[in-house]
Amino acid sequence: MKKLVIATTALIASAQASLANIASLAPPTSTAVPEISALEGTAALAAVAAVVLLAWERRRRAA
User: Transmembrane residues, as ranges (predicted)?
Assistant: First the structure.
């Protein structure tokens, strides 16, 4: 039940923010964002997976 309330609250908050952005009278501006290559993305995912597996293994051994 707690997770449902948190998820609903996050959904409502994000919907309000997006509606406020649409309702603004200022013209839309674009922001340059860096591109990421497939190699960099794969390396980032591998790093996250390694940290998660390390934490899982430490928790498993502690139990």
Answer: 36-56
User: Per-residue pLDDT tens for 32-51?
Assistant: 888 888 899 899 999 999 99
Q: What is the pTM of this model?
A: 0.45
How many Å apart are CA 5 and CA 43, to the nearest integer? 35
Three-state SS letters, 1-63 = CHHHHHHHHHHHHHHHHHHHHHHCCCCCCCCCCCCCCHHHHHHHHHHHHHHHHHHHHHHHHHC
CA distance linking residue 36 with residue 38, whole number of Å:
7
- Residue found under tokens 């922001």: 31
Where are the domains positioned within the chain?
Answer: 1-62
